[in-house]
Request: fold
Amino acid sequence: MSRFFDFVKALFTPGSKPQSPVIATSRIIILYAVIGIVWLYMSDRILLWMTDNLVSIVHMQVAKAFAYVIVTAFMFYLIVYHQIKLLFESIDSIHAVNTILDQKNADLQQMERHLYHLAYHSRETNLPNKLWFENTINELIQQRTSDQKLAIVILDIDHFNDINEMKGHIVGDTLLHLIGEMFDKKVQEPHVAAHLGADEFGLAFFQSGGHDAMMHVIHEVFDTLKHDYTIDDDTFEITFSAGIACHPGHGDTFLTLYRNAHSAMTTAKAKGKNQIIIFDEKSLLSRTEATNLTNQLRKAIKHSDLMLHYQPIINLKSGHMQFVEALIRWTHPDRGNIPPLDFIPLAEKTGLIKDMDYWVFNAAFKQYHRWHEQGMKKMRISINVSARTLVHPDFIPDLFKLMTKEQVQAKDFIIEITESIAIHDMKNCINVLKKLKKKGFLIALDDFGTGYSSLNYFRTLPIDQIKIDRSFINKVVDVEEDRNILEFIVLLAHRLKIEVVAEGVEDIKQDGIIRQYGVDFAQGYFYGRPVPASEIANQ
Reply:
């Protein structure tokens, strides 16, 4: 009997384990059959027990039948209600799960769109990034027909690094965002714009028509990109340097087109900025040669394959060599002697100049000891320092550390700087020069008179000498105005206790004039050419 009640309990328990339709139906039928049999058997026994009157039994049989119908109907109601309730609960659960799945799917789609945006767009400008740009260019290359033109333009913001340094990266990022909005507005389909990184942008122009029509569109867009931007109280006039590469003439793949357009853009910056340059093979060869020369120069500095020549500087009163200027020379194993004007600007542009200047100091310090041992005890060495080296934060500590290592004194050396250094960063320049002067170095202002000359230098810079440039000395023989200027410069310098050195003196007439006007020292081919250290004693 207990099993029967367990069976009934399991049948009506809401949380019971789901059953197959056949089993559930069979259990209901069996239950119905059991109840019916029990009812018939027990009810007849009860009726016979209650009475033996046939008429009463017939009436009671009818009542028993109605009672059986009512009881079984109620039981079937409970069973059907229970099953339908479970069905509706299951449907509600399915709807709830579907709702959750729909929300999850929407969230996943939104996340996918967000990840796509992150993967293919620039955070600073919200423009497509270089990966998107590359994929798009490759697709355009595949789609291009013979009558369609494809050109990519690589642009770089002129003087953007100066803005970052002067105003900070927050202003720089804000400016990039504003420029990105401008690109998005000005460059419309079928053309595309992308932010390739830092301050570099890429444009792709895809249209029908000839080369001239394409170039007209590019120049039109380029001109509209120039704009003034105001951030807080600062207004920035933005211009771009750009390089163009066209498919298929300048390359069949994105990487080739990008490299060539970038090369042309670099050429545009080198030629004065704010212009567009179309790629050509000669430009690429020139840049490739410069890259190779840079790598070779780096090795030459590392392995000390450079050398110093020294040019005498004459005391015009005594006629004797007072000191020498150290001049760097490079003898290339394959190309022979490379002029300093070819590799020094390259070193400044690539950042090798600091290592080169450090090498010059090291070589000059060692040579000073050799001359001292040979009896040339009063010899001073004048050393040129580039703008990038002078304002580098490591210059002073590295120089002083080298002096300690080589056991030299600052009073035996002259530091030469150019006027352009002072213009580039006057405040920092003065601070560094004061530290050098305090250490004991003499300071010389080189190339005086080459276009930036200002009397302000006499007052603000802690200099001991000015070196009048050869281009000015060349004119003093024939131009009276230049002789008057020379006289004025010498008088003013001497009033301020500054010595005057004339550079590039090449003949006796120039020598006579600079002596006449009281110049203190002179150097040039008239007195002696730059020579290796071993020959300087013969000058």
Notes: Residues 301-538 form a domain with the TIM Barrel fold (CATH 3.20.20.450). The radius of gyration is 47 Å.
